[in-house]
Amino acid sequence: MVWDYLIITLKNVKRRGVRSWLTVLGVVIGVMAVVALLMLSMGLQNAVEFQFSKLGLKSIRIIPGALRGAPSGGVSLPQGMKEKLDSMSIIDYVNPVVIDYRSLEFGREKKFFSFMGYDASLSGKGFVDLNVNMERGRFFHKNEKNAVILGNKVAHDSFKRAINLRSNVKIKGVSFRVVGILEKTGSDIDKRVYLPLQTMRDIFNIPTDINLLVIGLKDGVDTEEGARQIKAKLLRYYDKDDFAIFTPKQLLSRIQQMIGMLNFILGMIAAISLIVGSIGIMNNMFTSVLERTREIGVMKAIGARKSAIVLIFLLEAGIIGLVGGIIGLALGAAISYGVAAIAAHLGFDFLVVRLTLRITLVTLLLAFGVGALSGIAPAYRAASLKPIDALHYE
């Protein structure tokens, strides 16, 4: 019997032609927005978690309290903070980092990159925290000056010719020898240029600023407990708004919160589109009830139950939603893959989107459900018509 109702429903949808497709279009736009945002947000969140697991972050980071976002050259930590931390018994090393955005010359080309200066006396310790290895070359020697380490993308993809180990590059007209090229990570590390701290201070005239402190704890010291002790020590000398301390767990949580807030805002926008589509279905179904009043009267006169009338109209509304869901799913997935491809072309190849079975099923069920819910009021209106009134309706 349900199959018979389904056949009747499909014929009615087909009969209304253009009007049905315009109603479907409203659902398509809403579902397309939901799917695209869902796939991209999941891809972004998975990328962040993957990068954290790949980089193996395990040290504590101290950033300026006024900073909103990633550390940069614009905001610095208070003076003397490193020296106060050096005396703590739980700390293995304190790595002061200076960050700036400058140009790098190779051949006749000049490109801008993020430069990071770290204490050359720490050698590989400055990178051990990031779990990054050398593709070729070595880390800085103690007291080394005119040497540079390049991220993988800087070396291989940024200039017309690849920069090789022991090549010479220029920074502010001064020649530097490439002593190391980092392996590809798929993160921002690939697009950075690293210099010995004192060299970076001298060449860019940054005599005292520190934009970030990376704290390595001694073996056996719990990261969260270490962060608590460091904060207690610093609060003796500085105001709580002068700095912010983050453990890897806190960093990941903060990024996830930011992504979650963005997803919520975009999700609300997509939901509005879906609501507009549902209103279109409801309007279409009310119009359909008016057009088929005599047909409903005939069905009731020959013994059709209210439940049968309701089911026919709910199926009709649900199928309109489902068709819009299928098309919207395809278009939303296409948009997501397109955005990921463009991002990869621009160097953000860590964004990987996937159309999973879960997303597909949830989307199609949501589309059908939205359609069916939109058809409840028209369906009950149709079922409530009295046979005699319906048969006399013109």
Structural features, described:
This protein is an alpha+beta fold and 394 residues long. It folds into 2 domains: 2-52 and 254-391, no CATH class; 79-237, no CATH class. It is 54% helix and 17% strand. The protein is built from 13 helices and 10 strands. It has helices at 2-15, 18-55, 81-86, 125-128, 152-156, 197-204, 223-234, 248-291, 293-301, 306-345, 357-374, 376-383, 387-391; strands spanning 60-64, 91-106, 109-118, 134-137, 147-150, 168-171, 174-182, 192-196, 212-217, 243-246. Strands 1, 2, 3, 4, 5, 6, 7, 8, 9 and 10 form a 10-stranded mixed β-sheet that branches. Strand 2 (91-106) and strand 3 (109-118) form a beta hairpin. Helix 2 (18-55) runs antiparallel to helix 11 and helix 10 packs across helix 11. The longest helix has 44 residues, at 248-291. It is elongated and about 100 Å long. The model has no long low-confidence stretch (mean pLDDT 79).
